[in-house]
Amino acid sequence: MAAKNNLIKTADIQVTAREIDFVTRFERNWEHLREILGIMRPIKKQPGAILKSKYAEGSLADGNVGEGEEIPYSKFTVKEKEYAEMTIEKYAKAVSIESIKDHGYENAVQMTDDEFLFQLTTMVTGRFYDYLNTGTLTATETTFQMALAMAKGLVENKFKMMHRTATGVVGFVNILDVYEYIGAADITIQNQFGFQYIKDFMGFNTIFLLSEGEIQRGRIIATPVENIVLYYVDPNESDFVRAGLVYTVSGETNLIGFHTQGDYKHAVSEAFAIMGLTLFAEYIDAISVVDMTDDTTLGTLTVTSAAGTKTGDTKVTVSPGLETGHMYKYKVAAGSAPEVKFGQSVKTWTPWDGKSDITATTGQYITVVECDNTYKALKSGNDDVTAKS
Questions:
Q1: pLDDT of amino acid 234
Q2: With 0-12 CB in 10 A as exposed, 13-18 as middle and 19+ as buried, what is 87?
Q3: Assigned CATH for 295-384
Q4: CA 280 to each of CA 117, 129, 223, 293: distance values in angstroms, whole numbers, following the listed order
């Protein structure tokens, strides 16, 4: 007598178990990563939602105010910059029946599932690392220890200025820099789910050890724990379900959908994954990027002064252009241009946006400095002032 309709057979159980195992392991990995980072629960977004990074922009007004004169306001605004659109991404792999026959199920299917899961995870983290490298809170130091300290201090100070509390700071460094620094020191490096990290190291909650392709040597990146957010699109709420494409999901937060099936026409075992997952730092100017250098030679700027638009103003041009995360400061002096040394603090100099005319007198000297966020001089140049008469 033939088996009854809708009987759940061994093959069905194996396929379902494989799908559940895949999505469970994927979400477990992300759960552990969130615990390592210390970030909060993932935030669900709808497909098409635009993620925007935030940053503050503005400049200090001239602080040279005479006795009894009105003190001008310095204007700062928080702006948004579009980073990415939340979308559902689709992936697939297939294993031939010949591979299963030659290598066995565990090698042909299970090991490729493991690699599939690993590649999906590292794709998300890889995008995050690329984004972290664009942080605008920059500085330059000469030692690993000082670079670590400044990276942490910069983001904590930034959050204080934003009236936000940083309960912890996460760092990202090149693994070779860490080993070079610690030498034979006895520290515990943990390795879970493809992530290598150190807990409670030099004031950081966690320091992730990355490869050369993820962060360059001589660079330390840091950001407050509260600045990191995990956004996701629920695969079960996408239009794929409405179209009859049902994927196995797991847990309260459905970060990924997974489906397996046999393609009898080609005798292959197919696997399909869909997800919309973005690891994101909300405030790009609360990401510090500190580079180490043993070159303490002051860079050269070509500064040119020409008559400005209004009487008593000069139009200043500078080349090469300003590097990301750096800022301009200038000083006007009579007699001679002030001497500038590499690493010198120019905090008290006047800020300049790189385009506005500057009030000065013909015959004076104007010196422009490109500095990092700690006001350390990196490049400098000067010219005789030519103002509109």
A1: 86
A2: middle
A3: 2.60.40
A4: 20, 10, 11, 28
